[in-house]
Amino acid sequence: MADAIAALGQATNGTVDSELRGAGEALDGRITATAKPHGVVDSLVISPGALRLAPEALAEEILRAVNGALDDLRSKIGSALPGAPDTAALSAELRDIQERSTERMSAFLSAIETARTAARPEKR
């Protein structure tokens, strides 16, 4: 667990160039988005032609551009931070820790209940 916490600390405390940007687009460039570190969408540009789409379709395309920008940014940050932790491995380790701690807490609570029951005087 200490390794997982240390790796997460390293990932969140790593210095990332504040000028770093991720870019995404949809509808062949008629919708573009850029994102900067910490998941902030920096810009969203929608060409007039894209506004002719139905609202649901437009929203879907905007999401595609924004998610593309965020994915691009994540990729760039991963490249900019050598030795960055493998978040998939960290997630798996944290899930394992959560499962083990749940099992231990259940055993602990069961032992407390057993001790409480044993210490309780019998009613006659």
From TrEMBL:
<protein>
    <recommendedName>
        <fullName>YbaB/EbfC DNA-binding family protein</fullName>
    </recommendedName>
</protein>
<dbReference type="InterPro" id="IPR036894">
    <property type="entry name" value="YbaB-like_sf"/>
</dbReference>
<dbReference type="GO" id="GO:0003677">
    <property type="term" value="F:DNA binding"/>
</dbReference>
<dbReference type="Pfam" id="PF02575">
    <property type="entry name" value="YbaB_DNA_bd"/>
</dbReference>
<dbReference type="InterPro" id="IPR004401">
    <property type="entry name" value="YbaB/EbfC"/>
</dbReference>
